[in-house]
Amino acid sequence: MKETPPAKPAAARTAAKKTATKAVAKKTAAKKTAGKTVARKTATTKDAATKKAAVAKAPAAKKATAAKKAPASKKAAPAKKTAPAEKAPARKPESRVAMVRRARRINRELAELYPYAHPELDFTNPFELLVATVLSAQTTDLRVNQTTPRLFAVCPTPEDMAAMDPERLEELIRPTGFFRAKTKSLLGLSAALRDRFGGEVPGRLEDLVTLPGVGRKTANVVLGNAFGVPGITVDTHFGRLARRFGWTTAEDPDKVEADVAAIFPRSEWTMLSHRVVFHGRRVCHSRKPACGACPVAPLCPAYGEGETDPEKARKLLKYELGGQPGQRLKPPADYPGQPAPPMAAP
C-alpha cells in the first residue's frame, strides 16, 4: 500500500497562484506594448507617405492655380454663343399636294381681304400703262402716279413721245429717279411702237419683250391689266411673299413665275399678282412684317419673322389698312381708302 505525499500548506498554494497570475499579466502587458510600438511605426510610415504625396502634389497645384490666374491668350478662340434654351418646334416636311392646297387657301383668304385689289398705277390706255410700268422701276407707284399727268399732257401717244427732246423728257420724269436710263427706254419703245407696230401696243408677250426697257414683268402687267391676258407679275413684293409662303425657293424672277404658275390655275394669275403685291405693301413688309395682324398667319411658314404682338403689328399696317392714303390719284370706285394727293407744285 502506497503512501500519499503530505499536502502542501495552504499559504504555499496561495503564493504560487499569485506568482503565476503576475507572470500572465506581465506577458499581456508586454504584448500590448509591442502592439503600440507597431501601431506607432505604422502611423509614422503613413504620415511620411502622406507628406511625400503632399509635397509631390504641391507643384502641380501651384501650376494649375497659376494657369487659372494667367490672362487669356490673345489668340484664344472666341467663346461659342450659347444656344437658346427653347427652340421653335421644327415643321414637318410638307408634301407637294399639301403645299398646293395651302397656297390656294392663302389666295382665297387674300381675295376676301382685298376684294378691291387692282394695279396701283394710274392709266387710261395700254400705252399709258406701259410707260407707267417702265417708270415704276426703283421707285413707288405713288411717285409715278404723281409724275405721269404732266408727262401724258405733253406726249399722249407713242408718236408724240418718240419726237420729244431728250432733255425735256428727262425733266418731266426726273421725280421717278434714274431718269436718264428711263428716258432712253421711253424714246426707244415709243419709236419701236411707231415704226413696227403702227403706234399701237402689241398684245403678245413675244412682241412686248422686244421693246427697249420691257421685260417679262412689265409685259405681264400690260397683258393682264390692259388686254385681259393672264400673267404673273413678279416684282420684289411678289417674290418675297412667294418665298415666305413656301411656294418657291427661287430668287430668279422667271423661275419664281414658273414655280407659282404651276400651283394656280391660269385664270387666277393676274388677280393673284394683285393680291400678293397688295399684301406685301400693306402687311408683309420686307424688314418688319406685321405677323400679329396678318389674317393668313396660320397658313404661313414664315410666321414670327416680324412683329407678333397684335397691337404693335397693327401700327405697322400701311395705306388703307393703316388709315393712310393709297397710291393712285384716281383709284377704282370700290377702293375703301383715300386717293393719293397730287405732287406739290415746284
Structure description:
- The radius of gyration is 47 Å and the shape is globular.
- By secondary structure, the protein is mostly helical.
- Residues 1-12, 33-39 and 41-88 have low confidence and may be disordered.
- The protein contains 13 helices and no strands.
- It has helices at 10-69, 96-113, 126-135, 141-154, 158-162, 166-173, 179-196, 205-208, 216-226, 236-244, 253-261, 269-282, 310-314.
Secondary structure topology:
Elements lengths: L9 H60 L26 H18 L12 H10 L5 H14 L3 H5 L3 H8 L5 H18 L8 H4 L7 H11 L9 H9 L8 H9 L7 H14 L27 H5 L32
Helix pairs in contact: 3-9, 6-7, 10-12
Outline:
This protein is mainly alpha-helical.
Tag the structure with descriptive keywords.
346 residues; mainly alpha; 13 helices; disordered N terminus
Mean pLDDT: 83
Structural class: mainly alpha
- In terms of DSSP E residues, the strand content is under 5%
Total beta-strand segments: 0
Order of helices and strands: HHHHHHHHHHHHH
Number of helices: 13
Helix proportion of residues, in percent?
Answer: 40-55%
Radius of gyration equals 47 Å
Shape: globular
| First-residue to last-residue Cα separation | 169 Å
Low-confidence stretches: 1-12, 33-39, 41-88
Sheet of most strands? none
